[in-house]
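Entry 14. Two folds queued back to back today. First construct below, sequence then structure tokens.
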Amino acid sequence: MGQRSVLMLGGSGQAGTETAALLRRWYPTLPLTIAGRDLDRARRVADRLGTATAVRVDLTRGDLGRPADERYSAVVAALWDERLHGLRYAQRRGLPYLSVSSGPVDIAPEVVMGAQNTGAAPILLASHWCAGALTLAVSHLAREYERVDAVRIGAVLDERDTGGPAGMADLERWSATTSAALVRRDGVFTWLPAPDARAEVIASDGTAVPGEYIAILDVPSIAHATDAPNVHFAFAVGASTGRRRGGPASLEVRIDIEGAAPGGAPLRTGRYLTHAAGQRPLTALGMALGVERLLALRGAPVPPGIHTPEALVDPAHAVERMLEGGAVLTDAPGAG
């Protein structure tokens, strides 16, 4: 029997389409099933990919509106599945599952479902910035440290690069869920009320963009991956450096790390992770890296349980893929 297909819920949306295209480049024979409410749109995506099929799904139904005899290798939720029928569908069939739309507050139902069915299959919670790509980059950069004392992230999202209707809906839902920010201070995870969460993000061209610290899964993931007692993530929406220079909306994230080098000497580095095409290529990359690991296309089979990107994906491999895909890592002015 040949390899079964990956069921991509929301596979015809912006994130799903780019993820499917990336998987097709990496694995030309990997079967993909593009699933959505609009079958014609899903078919157009599948036709462009090749080795892909299109199906209509109904997320209001526990069986997703699909025949009981269909078989898949994994389920990818490239959209907000408010009833979690995609996760339940995966668990009942023992299939790996990946999600990218649950904020740090609304992951609770996914975590509980996973805890109640620990032997079912792996669940990859990748609702991080760019589906975990940033956390993987930080984990890679932190390897030059013997001890990490602080990690400070500053991301600028261009208002013209919010990821389509689904991405906008996610941002609005997250902001409605909580206006408080999650940071780690002196080893303690702390919620900051909105008035204390104001921040300023310095774009790669030196422009200061008003923003705020936010609650995002990268904070606990980076904190535990690096053992840094101090971690925060500042986020700003505004014109990106690429657009200010007359080009398309670009992605830019500043990563500052402080700690000690091997041997104990103080070490401080600052770098920018940028992409001229905006956030979508790195979001697709994060999702594709997750699918690659869940299917054991790279690395050992993933055991059942709840996982995060930095716990499964090799950071060096992730950064190599980022650079192949057009991302750039540069030293920040004045850092070090």
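Second construct, same run, same settings:
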Amino acid sequence: MGDILFLAHRVPFPPDRGDKIRSFHMLRHLAARGRVHLAAFADDARDMDRPELAALTASRAIVRRSKPQIVAGLQALASGRPLSLTAFDHAAMRRVVAEMLAREDIDTIFVFSSQMAQYLPAEPGARVIMDFVDMDSAKFAAYAEEAKGAMRWLYAREAGLLQGFEQAVAARADASLFVSDAEAALFRGATGAERVEAIENGIDTALFDPAAAFAPVEAGEALIVFTGQMDYRPNIEAVSWFVEAILPRVRVAHPEARFAIVGRNPGEAVKALARHDGVTVTGEVADVRGWLAAAAVVVAPLKLARGIQNKVLEAMAMARPVVASSAAAEGIDHDGTIAVGATAADLEEAVNTLLSDREHAARLGREARARVIARYGWDARLAPLDALLGLAATQVAAA
């Protein structure tokens, strides 16, 4: 096979947040099968030079993304395009992609996230694999249902325009990938698209292992932990809901209970939650495993969630008892190894039960880790990519 051009809306390293975890493992899988050329945006100065990617790529071009949101918004309104695209529209990236396609023997273009599909040439002349991950237009449609006034109109506009773009891209792609069967079915139903596949997220169970080496966190015996990127709206809504509607009732039964919100870039709304009794907002941490290992319970009370939640897989792999909302658990084949609730009362009851019965909590955690090991290893989850690349099993074995 020829070379692969990998387009990513964020540099796929380090694998320390949901999208970068998936893109990193996709990149690593592809790099084991052919020469990969990476073109990606960096929204963090540290991502402009990631030497760790040298072993995975034949060449790399990183473009710093610094367009202000207000500028992207004005461009979207003026052009009639989705904000999701204008925010990632950059002349330097267009040059980079054109140069790589002209210089290298590319026979597969792997597009990670819909924002990067705008860089596909009109006539690709190569196999196109489009990893949408989630159906972003459905996310904005859900936002529109909850919003009012101008924001309702803006979200509805974004949902409609983005779905039209997603549908057009899928029609051009040789395969369109989604993170779960449910997400793939949603996309097929909404767009009528064909050649749609589900490739689930996995988990590195050697890294996320309670027996691995990592710095411990001393945080008491009744610690409840949430992990995630804390400038992401669904995460902000999740921790706000937990602090305001669930934690006070948990602390009636367990006054010693504390809630740690662990993740980078907490905004003012998240930081303000630390004013509540028993709440800690850590900001970015060097290694989330110490906080997970210290947790008596890990919670994922997301009201809006798409696909498979890495935060849940990581907690399961660390043998922690997990309490998840129905939305957060929907894409995960957990086989009853996590507690799931639809309402604040459901989640409160599940947390209280686990805090009261530590033996049951430990057993649930052990079962969750066993389930993840059996079901979510990255090699098994990404194996279907080989057929999409046109590789026979004998070629993979020889790679």
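Quick look at the second one. The domain at 223-375 is CATH 3.40.50.2000 (Rossmann fold). The chain has two domains: 3-202+378-398, 223-375.
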